[in-house]
Fold this sequence. Notes:
Elements lengths: L1 H23 L15 H9 L1 H23 L7 E5 L6 E2 L1 H10 L5 H10 L3 E2 L3 H10 L3 E9 L3 H10 L10 E4 L6 H8 L3 E7 L14 H10 L8 E3 L7 H7 L8 H10 L5
Parallel strand pairs: 1-4, 1-6, 4-5, 6-7
Antiparallel strand pairs: 2-3
Amino acid sequence: MKNKILISLFTFIICVGCKSQVTQIKPENTRGVPVKEHIIQALLWQQNAAEYKALTYQAYNLAQFQLDKILTKNTFKKPIAIVTDIDETVLDNSPYSGKQVELDENYSSLRWTEWVNKKKAGVIPGALSFFKYAKSKGVEIFYISNRSSKQTKETIENLKLKGFPFADESHVILKNSNSEKETRRNYVRKTHEIVLFLGDNLSDFSSIFENRSTIQRNKSVDSLKTLFGKKYIVFPNPIYGDWETKGILEGKYKWTDFQKDSIRHKKILSY
Length: 271
């Protein structure tokens, strides 16, 4: 009888222990697929990898090398200019992406505006010294970005705080209603000879890359391969860009998070 009581008591203790373990398990994400988990590795790379910093230094070293070559053979009738993108080319917005990961949140214009208004975007390694060098050589800088024109004041202030030259309304040309950049590049061409284009997105260089599929974008890169490293200087950005929105996601913005996750997995090559 005594043994039966001990066995029953032991069984009861085990059951209670199992029950307490079950109640401590955190419930799974009821929303389904985490919306920003796919950028975590890329974000960690941009914020921590010395290789990322090496690549941006390399890009700006190459830009300076090409600029020097151009200046020694300068026969242009108009003043020389460089056209550059801002985000992930001049300014580092990775903390905004970090906030997206922290909140597991898709792009939000309100959240992006919150970040821009802080004017805390850092400097992409190599950017400041290059643009100061270009100015010292008599070259003007035009910042053509798809930030909203409503954010011109905050963007200029952020650039000024970091010491960038030509941070004024004449040289910082942001987006109005249309995100294509060719019209704004042509505006600069009216008065200046653009000798270099800098950016992290192919549409920063030419309209030939606008609204193109992955296959079309790659074919265009092949056809213009001699311009990369000479007139077009590309910066790494594995977190976001047309390569994903226009390429991987095929320019469609109404996919559910589950559909986006499925598409990303299907586009990966294996053996």
